[in-house]
Amino acid sequence: MENINHHKHNVHKVLAHSYAMYFLLFLIGVTLDLVFKFKIFASSVMVPVGFFFLVLATIIILWAQKTGRDLRKVKEVKTEHFCRGPYCYTRIPTQWGLFFLLLGFGIITNSFFVILFTIIAFFISKFVFMGKHDRILAEKYGSAYIEYIKIMKF
Fold first, then answer.
1. Closest CA to 126 of 15, 7, 3
2. For a disulfide at 18, which of 65, 113, 129, 147, Cβ 3.0-4.6 Å?
3. Helices and strands (DSSP H and E) totals, the chain
4. Which one-letter DSSP state was computed for residue 44?
5. Angle, CA of 80, 137 and 86, to the nearest 5°
6. Backbone angles phi and psi of 110, in degrees to 5
7. Between 2-36 and 93-108, two packed helices, what is the crossing angle to 10 degrees?
8. Per residue in 11-62, pLDDT tens?
9. CA separation for the pair 87, 85 (Å, rounded)
């Protein structure tokens, strides 16, 4: 049990750092937008797209969180246990949700730097934090998670 808690702590620590990095880059983007006031769109025609992303993001995040909790109930984890809910489409649904949430906000507020830093945050998260995340889960779940990684590339 101690080993499982160690993995759980590490996974949550990696995710917390990823989310904190999103938040920090979001704040930098907002600050730069307040100072420089660069706009991307000439009119508010993109606002409905931004709202769509906000709603989509909320659904993805809530779905991922509920589905992630369901895995705790499984006694012997197999590869198919990872392919549930949004995890059948991506290994990182919460990251996608966070990306769409901040992107939607950036589009609604016509904020160049928020959009730019949201894209940068996504790539940092994907290539820095999610690699660590995958290593921890592969160590915790072994071949079941390694096979899932092979099936679900992104």
1. 15
2. 129
3. 7, 0
4. G
5. 45
6. 55, 50
7. 10
8. 889 999 999 999 999 999 999 999 998 989 988 899 999 999 999 999 999 9
9. 5
